[in-house]
Amino acid sequence: MADVNSGVLYVVATPIGNLGDMVPRAVEVLQMVDVIAAEDTRHSAKLLQHFGISAKLVAYHDHSNQQRLDKILELLVSGQSIALISDAGTPLISDPGYHLVNAVRDKGLSVVPIPGACALIAALSVSGLPSNQFAFEGFLPAKSSARRSALDLITNEHRTVIFYESPHRIVESLQDMCKVLGGGRYMVLARELTKTYETVLSGSIDDVLSAVLADTNQQRGEFVVLIKGYDKTPQNDITPEVQKLMNVLLEYVPVKVASAIAAKVTDVKKRDLYQWAIENAKS
Fold first, then answer.
1. What pTM, to 2 d.p., does this model score?
2. CATH code of the domain containing 101
């Protein structure tokens, strides 16, 4: 059995879909703590019932006031043990908990992690993208103008970039990615990880967007978006002759069309031509 100490805050990961991913240590800790602080008590009650956990449940989320935070600190100082959980996955990873953990550490009290499921790590592990270095950006802004500004900042990021996205914004986000990063940029879209309708799409942003638009089922659920890092390797295949052809085509047709035409008459990939045009073509 896991040891649970008094006056300790345990940050406990819970499944992101499949309940079989709940680690034994997490179950044991939740069974033994005095209080469980949950993002949504109604949602978490189902999880706790499934595992036969009867600890006292209190709400703690991003909109909790200082009074609620102070109450949790008071309980810890008095010697009670508390577990922090979110609706799914690891707390603090685009979920509530930062202010609480920071306040607990400022009090000189212990914070202990109980690792488990995390959507971004699960998606990265199956993406085929470089995983030795990556940047997690949380959720993209809701408004298109702010979203494009955020995307613009990672245009030349050499690391794999990871976002979370919601179903009602996935199409608009992919469209903005096409416009800012270029439709030829390679990406992976992981949907509903560990759940019944888990899907992992990959290819150019153009290709993934087309697949999502063609099947409304691919617009449902929770998404992890992974963008391949910017390749700083010189595009040796794009010779001066190919560049001249692209510049001529771009005087008459959009970038996407110019890239498709040039790809048919040269040995250069459409994706590389598209990216070159976004970065180098004459305005």
1. 0.81
2. 3.40.1010.10
User: CA 204 to CA 264: how far, in whole Å?
Assistant: 17
Helices then strands, counting H and E runs in the chain, come out as 11, 10
Asked if 98 and 38 sit in the same domain, the reply is yes
Please list, in sequence order, all residues whose beta carbon lies within 8 angstroms of the beta carbon of residue 11, skipping any fewer than 6 positions away: 83, 84, 90, 91, 92, 97, 101, 111, 112, 113, 114
Any idea what the CATH number is for the domain that residue 207 is in? Answer: 3.30.950.10
> pLDDT digit string (tens) for 202-254?
999 999 999 999 999 999 999 999 999 987 655 556 888 888 899 999 999 99
pLDDT above 90 for 133: yes
Whether residues 200 and 262 share a domain: the answer is no
Structural domain including 76 reads 8-117
Counting the structural domains of the chain, the total is: 3
Highest mean pLDDT among 25-34, 176-185, 257-266: 25-34
Neighbours of 18 (CB within 10 A): 13
Give the integer Cα–Cα distance in Å for 18 and 47.
11
pLDDT at res. 229: 94
